[in-house]
Specification:
mainly alpha, Glycerol uptake facilitator protein, 81% helix
Length: 319
Amino acid sequence: MATNYLSPKEVAESSIGITSGKASLSIGKMLVLGFLAGAYIAFGALASTLVSHDLPLVGVGRLVTGMVFSAGLMMVLIGGAELFTGNILIWTGVLSGKVGVGAMLRNWFWVYVANFLGSLAVVAMMYYSGLWGTNNNMVGAYALKIAVGKCGLTFTSALMRGILCNWLVSLAVWMSWSCKDIVSKVFAVFFPITLFVAANFEHSVANMYYIPAGLLLKANPAMVDAAHLADKVGVLTWHSFLINNLLPVTIGNILGAALFVASAYWFSYLKGAKAQAAASPAVEGVGAALVASAIANNCPVIKACPANNAMQELAGSKR
């Protein structure tokens, strides 16, 4: 019976072709599609900030933030774009011997750079849009608080949150590969992304929007006053962004996707697949011969057939 989704094994098998295609993209296409992905994630981040900035309950705010933020990855996967955190799954192609390590690293580098450029472009447009001044600067104040919180993490905390984040994000991407229609893709993305944002994990590409936004807002006294962070904005520097947050979060994102999704599903569904496929015809041939022999030896009609008796006599004379 036909279905509108792939089984887990079929997803693993199809991932080889998908990741090989990503690894073979030209630099120009990686830059354009990577720029779009960075912008799409930034759209999700800025919209989620705006809709949740005045929610009184922290838990509800995190939930709403995650629900809105998930639209960013939906645009990436349905619209077609190249996202660094999703492309860690190219590791599956490397493990299967279909993609070289050099090709994988080439993709990661150019897509990462392009994601950063796309995120910064949206930060700049948001700055000049005046939207951070919404609700008496409270939207900008909330964005500033987010950035300060991210730059205040320890290396270990940022690393662990990065691992947990991209375990879920790359799982959302993997699950979307199982879907044959857009509605299914939306739901495949919605729940894992809502979970990671609600749990306050760390996504490297999202932080390419959040923290540069905070660095710009830090220079606006009205935003700092609205956020009541005059004594804490000193933590917001390019050094703290790149070294204290983006570096450990990026490492964590790589580990989360490569270990818990790409390697896990490769081991479960793809490892040894060639050997099994090669052995199948021989096993099927032996099985067919055994079935035919059993039928010939036990079926009274075949036993009584003159042709069968002649064949047995001929076989006996050759022994």
